[in-house]
Amino acid sequence: MNFNLSEMMEKARNVQQEVEKIKAQSANIIVVGQAGGGMVSVKMNGNYQAMEVKISPELIQEKDAEMIQALVVAAINNATKELAEKLKDELSKVSSLLPNIPGLDKLGGF
Predict the structure, then answer these.
(1) What's the pLDDT at 110?
(2) Does any domain span residue 63?
(3) Each residue of 3-40: b (16+ CB within 10 Å) or e?
(4) I need a labelling partner for 80 at 20 to 30 A (CA). Which of 36, 62, 70, 88 fits?
(5) How many domains does the chain have?
(6) Which of 25, 36, 28, 108 has its CA nearest to residue 75?
(7) How many CA atoms are closer than 13 Å to the CA of 110, on its beta-carbon side?
(8) SS3 of 49, please?
(9) Are 87 and 26 in contact (CB under 8 A)?
(10) Is 85 a domain residue?
């Protein structure tokens, strides 16, 4: 087994640069989570910030605050889950730059 520290350090710098690029670009990722068959939707950016909440007029007319609250929470959770998957997919691209160290794939969800 050939161990080259300078090569490993260079790869680590490349990985760090790629992760920083992904972080910078993540703000541009937009996802929409829905609940109640689309009666509630939440638009979220890659920094996990809600940008917009839409509630259908029909749902508002029902005047059921508890149901609306539950659907808003569900829509937020759906958006968060979708965003986490997108970010995970982006970060998994970086894992190919990592050196082959046994057991490394078990750390950090790569």
Answers:
(1) 41
(2) yes
(3) eeeeeeeeeeeebeebeeebeeebeebebbbbbbeebb
(4) 62
(5) 1
(6) 36
(7) 19
(8) coil
(9) yes
(10) yes
